[in-house]
Write a structure and sequence with these properties.
This protein is an alpha+beta fold. The chain has one domain (29-213). The chain is 30% helix and 24% strand. It has nine helices and eight strands. The N and C termini lie far apart (45 Å). This is DUF1264-domain-containing protein. It comes from Lentinus tigrinus ALCF2SS1-6.
C-alpha cells in the first residue's frame, strides 16, 4: 500500500475537523461502558472472537452495544449485542429465546471484563468492576456478528452469524488468545475469577437460554431467496 500523500493527509484532516464542527454524534456520544469478552459461533464452538463492546444503557433492564474487534483507532465494526435483564428474558417467546445466551459463566470465570485503556495495568480493578459484573451476572445477550473477522479479515463477506458465550470450563478461547488479551489489557483473567468468588451471589442461569447445551444444535443463518413482495 502506498503511503498517503501530504495533500491527502491535509484533506483528510480538514474533512474530519469540518465534520466534527457540523455533524451530530449524539447517539455515539452516549456510549459509556466498554466491555471485553469472547464470543463463539453458535454453530461452531471451535471459533472464538475477541469482542469489544461499547454500550449504552437504554434502561436498567436493556443495554445496546456495538462490537469491534479491538479498541484501537482502526478497529473493525463486527457486530451488535442487545443485553436484557433476567426479568425481560423470562417474558420472551420460547421461539425467541434460542437466540439468546447467558452471561453467568462469562462473569464468574473472569472472561467478561470492564476494559481499561490498553497497556494501563490495573485500571479496571475488581472494586471498579463489581457494580457492572453484579448487573451483568444475571443478564442475557443476543449477539449478531456481521463480519466473520476470523475467516475474512479484509471484508465483511457472507451472511451474518449468531454468536454465543461459554457456559462452563473447557469451552473458552484458546490459551494463547486469552493470554494475548490479558497482556494487552494489563488484566489477569484467572485472578479475577478468584476475586469474583467473593462477591457474586449464588445464581443459576435460565436454561431456556443457551439452547445448544440441551440440543447439541446451534443456529446458523442461511440465505433463502424469495420472490420480492410488491
Amino acid at each position: 500500500m502506498q503511503p498517503e500523500s501530504k495533500q491527502a493527509t491535509y484533506h483528510s484532516a480538514t474533512y474530519h475537523a469540518a465534520g466534527s464542527a457540523i455533524m451530530s454524534f449524539t447517539p455515539i456520544n452516549q456510549i459509556h461502558q466498554h466491555l471485553c469478552a469472547f464470543h463463539v459461533y453458535a454453530s461452531d464452538h471451535d471459533r472464538h472472537v475477541e469482542a469489544h463492546h461499547f454500550c449504552k444503557h437504554l434502561s436498567h433492564d436493556f443495554h445496546q452495544c456495538v462490537i469491534y474487534d479491538s479498541d484501537k483507532p482502526d478497529a473493525k465494526l463486527i457486530g451488535i449485542e442487545y443485553i436484557v435483564s433476567e426479568r425481560i428474558f423470562k417474558t420472551l417467546p420460547q421461539e425467541e429465546k434460542k437466540y439468546w445466551h447467558s452471561h453467568k459463566y462469562e462473569v464468574e470465570s473472569g472472561l467478561l471484563q470492564l476494559a481499561p485503556k490498553s497497556f494501563v495495568p490495573g485500571v479496571a480493578t475488581d472494586v471498579a468492576e463489581q457494580p457492572a459484573m453484579l448487573e451483568l451476572y444475571q443478564s442475557y445477550g443476543k449477539t449478531i456478528h456481521t463480519w466473520a473477522i476470523d475467516v475474512h479479515p479484509d471484508l465483511p463477506l457472507g451472511p451474518p452469524n449468531l454468536m454465543m458465550s461459554c457456559i462452563g470450563d473447557g469451552q473458552g478461547p484458546p490459551a494463547e488468545m486469552l493470554k494475548a488479551r490479558d497482556t494487552a489489557s494489563g488484566q489477569d483473567t484467572m485472578a479475577k475469577r478468584e476475586i469474583r468468588k467473593g462477591y457474586l451471589p449464588p445464581y443459576e442461569r435460565d436454561e431456556a437460554a443457551d439452547e445448544w447445551a440441551k440440543t447439541g444444535k446451534g443456529v446458523e443463518f442461511v440465505v433463502n431467496e424469495m420472490p420480492v413482495r410488491k
